[in-house]
Amino acid sequence: MNEKNQITEGVIWKHLLFFFFPVVAGMFLQQIYNAADTIVVGRFVGKEALAAVGGSVNQIVNLIVEVFVGLTSGAAVIVSQFYGAKDRKNLEKTIHTTYALAIAAGFVIGILGLIFSETILTFMKTPDELMKDSLQYLHIYFLGIVFNLVYNMGASALRAMGDSRRPLYVLAVACSLNVVLDIFLVVVCRMGVAGAATATIFCQGISACIVTWMLMSKEKFCRLELKKIRIHMNSLRSVLRIGIPAGFEAAMYCVANIVIQVFVNKLGTDHVAAWGTFGKIDAAFWMIVNAFGISITTFVGQNYGAGKIRRMRRSVKVCLLMSYISAVTMSIILMIFARQLYGLFTTDGAVIDIGVYMMRFLMPSYFLYVVIGILSGALRGAGRVLVPVLLTCGGVCILRIMWMLVLLPVHPGIETIMLSYPASWSITAVLFIIYYIRRFPGSRSSRSLTPQKML
Questions:
Q1: Is-contact 78 239, C-beta < 8 A?
Q2: What DSSP letter does each residue of 55-98 carry, written as one string?
Q3: 300/441 Cα distance (integer angstroms)
Q4: Disulfide check for 196: which of 37, 176, 190, 448 has CB 3.0–4.6 Å away?
Q5: Among 251, 37, 280, which residue's Cα sits nearest to residue 140?
Q6: Are 450 and 85 in contact (CB under 8 A)?
Q7: Alpha-carbon distance 247 to 237, whole Å?
């Protein structure tokens, strides 16, 4: 590892974009990957199948995946800091430990998911006409959940070491294959939602194998070896110290969304289908903010590991500016083409009308979240996770749940549900700005920290 590290030494805006574009392209492919199931079953099976895949099922899958992705963010921070500090020994221990964690978690979650799927769907008040398809999709998905977790862990490690391109190549292969298999299994073989779920887990298996091979063939400075995959307790504690709060934050987000889904379910199949599809369409916005969040986490982590605190802070300012420009532009595009986008998922006029109303009501407030996503990523890269997690959980998640429980009975309707988002984002954004200004690393005392001391 003698070549120049552009993240710690190059032009900030240029290399932030070089890192960002493969990440956001990968997220775009991931959304196509996820949306393929919804589009195919929505157009070729019916709106009940669309609601089944995009309603309660979507919230449950997101809960599991997002919690684990939170854990992988802990691994990414530690990997980026050791990579920036050129600490090969601890870097290898961290990567082998996180792989062991992904495999173990995959098997445990898979078994629990198979056992409790029906109970969870019932608790979420999933409509009776959607229960069979929802349960069938979840059972198949949980059989292959380990592949999803292994891929996410491996891709996160590659990105943390500055390689954001090869995870993109993996997604390109998996996405293309998933679309082909969706059409074949759902349309040709008429397997319904079972075909969509089968295509998903097969492609996730391919993704997990490819990203594992990439890590095994990486340069000698850090290479994954299957025989070395095991838990190193010091590495595990370091990863979990950051990963558990991040995973808890993701869980709280998902719990809040599940609570909201329960109330949306009460509005009927059309609203469930429209709301679930909205979640697929507005993913274009979230992938931009989240890609910048991942990028700034890596930039802050590597510069923090290298002791370049001033450069780290400049990176955050540049990232915020680019994020706002990109996010506002995407919001405008989504609102303008709302009807056409919904038409990709369904031909049902009632669902389209409800969905377009949702998008044009809610999208103008999305810019409020940008500062939360970027500052949270920056703070995580510097190892500061507890307070940001508390701010997010209290300002976004708990407030949103209280909004549902207190205001919705008084003012029932989809408008009250949607207003919970800008209300919670506004409060949380202000809290993040105050905390960042007062506590972000950059004081004289934090300049002496090293990754080892911080961990």
A1: yes
A2: THHHHHHHHHHHHHHHHHHHHHHHHHHHHHHT-HHHHHHHHHHH
A3: 10
A4: 37
A5: 37
A6: yes
A7: 14
- Name the amino acid, one letter, at 436: Y
Residue-by-residue DSSP string for 217-237 = TS-TTS---GGG-S--HHHHH
Tokens of 263: 């109330």
Q: How far apart are CA 387 and CA 67, in angstroms?
A: 18
Return the residue matching tokens 């500062």.
Answer: 371
Query: Which pair of structure tokens corresponds to residue 140?
Result: 């198949």
Other Cβ atoms within 10 Å of 434 Cβ, number: 11
Q: pLDDT tens digits for the chain (455 residues)?
A: 455 666 767 677 777 877 788 877 777 777 776 667 777 777 777 777 777 776 677 778 777 877 777 778 778 878 887 877 777 888 888 889 989 989 998 899 899 988 988 888 888 777 777 888 888 888 998 998 999 889 988 888 888 887 878 888 888 888 888 888 888 998 888 888 888 889 888 988 999 999 999 888 866 567 788 888 888 888 888 888 878 887 787 777 777 877 888 888 888 878 888 888 888 788 888 888 888 988 888 888 778 777 778 888 888 889 999 999 988 999 999 999 989 888 888 778 888 898 899 898 999 999 999 999 899 888 887 777 778 888 888 877 788 888 888 887 888 888 888 898 899 899 999 999 998 888 776 544 444 444 444 44
